[in-house]
Amino acid sequence: MTCLPLSGFATRAIHAGYDAAAHDGALVPPLHLSSTFVFESAEAGAEIFAGEREGYFYSRIANPTVDLLEQRMAALEGAEAAVATASGMGAIAGVLWSFLQPGDEIIVDKTLYGCTFAFMRHGLARFGIRITHADLTDPANLSAAISKTTKIVYFETPANPNMRLVDIAAVAAIARRHGARTIVDNTYATPVLTQPITLGADIVVHSATKYLGGHGDLVGGIALGTAADMQQVRLVGIKDMTGAVMAPFNAMLVLRGLKTLKLRMAEHCRSAVAVAAALDAHQAVAAVHYPGLAGFAQHDLARRQMPGFGGMIAFELTGGYAAGVAMMNRLNLVQRAVSLGDAESLIQHPASMTHSTYTTEERREHGISDGLVRLSVGLEEVDEITADLMQALDAVTAARVSVDA
Ligand code: PLP
């Protein structure tokens, strides 16, 4: 029972890639901490190094525990292969360094996680790579911007932090016609809600720190795509350029997280729908950005592309930033912390935290309002999450906290 190609998502998340009989009957895969692997002879070592014989030799290149996670994630994303990395940023940097040369252009959506934006704007751009921002919520903007030098089209959907969606199939089709690779950051949706490769994307990246791990106890990432592309990422972007390899212990934690991913996502989605509706109905709230709300600008695309609307919500208060700060300080259950996708509900302020890598002007230009608050709806009782938010909003309303306060 190794690959289970015809089995359903939850079964693959628990079994894919593992054969207990090959590991002394151990139900749970062993953790291989070894950094290096012994060659049976000098000749065998040389053959493994030359790629003429299969075998592990050093855990910066491959490790059996990490390898199992890579196989399992590939089975969930519909990819041929995967490379697990030290962090989500490790996956993003490892992939982009693998495929870009000075003089190339990368077209990226206007809304990106703050460190991804910084890596492109302040990292890649220093090495002669042209970064073009386009509003990919309308695929026509990609058709207008793409050129012969465009090698990569990159976006998040839903995007961090403002939840804008990109039509993966439409954008990937345009990129493909122009010979560019489409790379999707699938951290927010997870393969439970979207499998970008099955919609035409070439590469998927994740921060495994979030929903994949799911318990807030690791930092990790993963890239997925064709076997040829992932070989290049492993040997160029990770082995030689960044060294951002995932530790075996973290791979074990992500494997454990994956076993409940489908269950957890169902609950995150169910709860977020209820929380978004409650926020939307509160007088202190000016706008709620959640794909599941009928009033969300891209609700139709969300219904077409995502079987559930996810656990992330962004919202703005009528009292602006001051009201957002006052509200966060009144919360008792919801924790003030960055990151997302954990069992605990987490709230943070993108402009001063995750997206402070943008200047104020850049945030304005890229549609990230300073009053935006980002909420990761956790797995606590939904009525208790909602009650905590409502009492904090009521207190802000009573105190009349506003931008002028
Ligand atoms: N991509 C998205 C959408 C994120 O939200 C994050 C982190 O918050 C990352 C990538 C980076 O992941 P990591 O923190 O694991 O490096």
What does the model show?
The protein is α/β, with parallel strands linked by helices and 405 residues long. The chain folds into two domains: 9-258, 3-Layer(aba) Sandwich (Aspartate Aminotransferase, domain 2), CATH 3.40.640; 261-400, Alpha-Beta Complex (Aspartate Aminotransferase, domain 1). It has helices at 9-15, 42-49, 64-77, 88-99, 114-123, 139-145, 168-177, 190-193, 227-242, 248-258, 261-281, 299-305, 320-329, 360-365, 382-399, and strands at residues 81-85, 105-109, 130-134, 150-156, 181-185, 203-207, 221-225, 285-289, 312-317, 335-336, 346-348, 372-376. A seven-stranded mixed beta sheet has the order 1-7-6-5-4-2-3, with helices on both faces. Strands 8-9-12-11-10 form a five-stranded mixed beta sheet. The radius of gyration is 22 Å and the shape is globular. It starts with 8 loop residues before the first helix and ends in a 6-residue tail after the last helix. Bound molecules: pyridoxal-5'-phosphate. Pyridoxal-5'-phosphate (PLP) binds at residues 87-89, 113, 115-116, 156, 160, 185, 187, 207, 209, 219, 221.
Entry summary:
This protein is an alpha/beta fold and 405 residues long. It has helices at 9-15, 42-49, 64-77, 88-99, 114-123, 139-145, 168-177, 190-193, 227-242, 248-258, 261-281, 299-305, 320-329, 360-365, 382-399; strands at residues 81-85, 105-109, 130-134, 150-156, 181-185, 203-207, 221-225, 285-289, 312-317, 335-336, 346-348, 372-376.
Helical proportion, percent range: 25-40%
Q: Can you tell me the overall shape?
A: globular
Number of helices: 15
- How would a textbook summarize the main sheet? 7 strands, mixed
What is the C-alpha radius of gyration, as a whole number of Å?
Answer: 22 Å
CATH architecture of the largest domain, by name, is 3-Layer(aba) Sandwich
CATH top level assignment of the largest domain: Alpha Beta
Q: What are the secondary-structure elements, in order, as H or E?
A: HHHEHEHEHEHEHEEHHHEHEHEEHEH
CATH superfamily of the largest domain: Type I PLP-dependent aspartate aminotransferase-like (Major domain)
Question: What do we call the CATH topology of the largest domain?
Answer: Aspartate Aminotransferase, domain 2
In this entry the ligands are: pyridoxal-5'-phosphate
Going by helix content, strand content and strand pairing, the class is alpha/beta
Strand content: 5-15%
Count of individual beta strands: 12
Give the spatial strand order of the biggest sheet: 1-7-6-5-4-2-3
Report the uncertain regions: none
